[in-house]
Amino acid sequence: MRFAAIILALFLTFTTACTLTSGQPGSQDITPVVVVPSPTALSPFPTNTPSLNPTPTQTTGGGTTGGTTTCVPRTDWVARYTVVDGDTLGSIASRTNTTAITLATGNCLANPDSIFTGQVLLLPQAPSVPTATQNPAADGPSQQGTIYISAIVSADAGNFFLLRGETITLRWDDAPASIEGIRFILGTSSSQTEIGQDANPLDGISISWNVPAGLSGQIMASARYAGNTKVVSSYPVYVGSAPASGQGCEIAPADPNGATAYTQADLNSPAFGTIAVGQYVEVLGRSLNGWYGFDPGIAQAGNTGASRLRWLPLDTRLLYRGNCPDRPAGTGGTQNYSNPKIGIALDYPLDWTLLYDENNNITFKGPDSSYFEIIYGPSGQVTPVTQAVADCKNTMMCLGNRTVTGESMLTLGGGISGTKLTFSADVVDGDPGPSAQFFTIIFNRNFYIRGFGNLAYFDQIISTLRLVTG
User: Fold this and answer.
1) Which of 282, 299, 322 is where one domain is finished?
2) Are 87 and 167 found together in one domain?
3) Looking at the structure, do residues 440 and 338 belong to the same domain, yes or no?
4) 60: in domain
5) Which is nearest to 6 in space by CA: 463, 435, 455, 420?
6) Which domain holds residue 415?
7) How crowded is residue 147: how many other Cβ atoms within 10 Å of its Cβ?
8) Cα 463 from Cα 6, distance rounded (Å)
9) pLDDT digit string (tens) for 108-126?
10) Residue 16 lies in a domain
């Protein structure tokens, strides 16, 4: 290939025509990576989940001649009650010092004689405890009711993914009446742990709970019938959360223009900023359709829902670091190249090949015939970056049949900085194009790094360039 033949001549020009002076960059921090486990075999979950709470039904009834009026439930009634087996509107009214007609009107019930188990009613006050005849302990069920979770990242078929570190409400809906000793329990494959108690069930059975990292198990509520030893529990829900920071997955946009984040896992939702190429963020959740959720966006909590995540679309081309079992098929991974003798290391795609590493030249080739090359000069013989850039732009051996299309300063991790030039394709000789070239000094040595073909790979690989020592 023509550009391969240019390397030696360019290197001679580059190392003899330039006299660079620069300080030595410092060390680089490498951000640890985090991944998201799923409650069931690491399967992802959908983000749009129906509410677990039924709400009072609004009805329309006859109004003035020629029209209808819409009934609006009582907004000044703050108590909520979930109908259980055996309840009638009259029995509930007697426990709230009111009448069935009043409750029917306040809840917009078209038929006061028709209520159903699980229906949620608004009440003017919390109901009194039912008498034993309303719920005989000896005949009570051993399992009844569901667990409501106030804030989730995503859910699917009884599996809930929660936001690590968020304080949420757990509530036992449709619990039996006349129970005591109420506990909420987290069960895992190896243990059961009590996570809270509610000593006053009259105002609704619930607790506040801070979601731990690395959650994987099931939650259920348990109690015993008053005056009896018979135990009753809720049906369990399965829960999971992201592992502790540094133990999971991080992702970063691979495209030069970065990626747009959204307030929901939906392209119709508002945009929530841009993530720059190579900027890694910690994954905190993933939707069933493949969107990645990250970083609570507290400032935009009103736009992003209960768990305040930002989301990157499925079609975003990403870099992955750490334990990322939910990585989509075909994205591949990266492999490490390290050369302590010259003081650099980088990551390049798994489907790329290291062609050779000798004679001051390191070359990687991609499956689409894209190339990434590193040419470096002798230690202690440096040329200023500004001069090296000017020489390249004025030298046929550097430009070939290409034209300069862009010039910018580039700063990488660990204090590596320099100037990046981008070039058009070489349509005359047919070399893979376009191309990019990056001039820098590392450990008192000139480096001339260039790529041909798909420049997204160039940006992806060079974003991982870092310092190492032997």
Assistant:
1) 322
2) no
3) yes
4) no
5) 435
6) 2-29+333-467
7) 22
8) 25
9) 888 877 788 888 888 888 8
10) yes
Which segments in the chain show pLDDT lower than 50? 1-67, 132-137, 301, 303-304
Short-list 421, 361, 344, 413, CA closest to 386: 421
- Residue where the block lists tokens 């619930």: 206
Structure tokens at 467: 């310092």
Boundary of a domain, candidates 297, 322, 347: 322
CB 265 within 8 A of CB 281: no
The 10s digit of each residue's pLDDT in 182-219 is 999 998 767 788 999 988 777 789 999 999 998 888 99
Query: Within 10 Å of residue 180's Cβ, how many Cβ atoms?
Result: 12
Query: What is the Rg, in whole angstroms, of the alpha carbon atoms belonging to the chain?
Result: 32
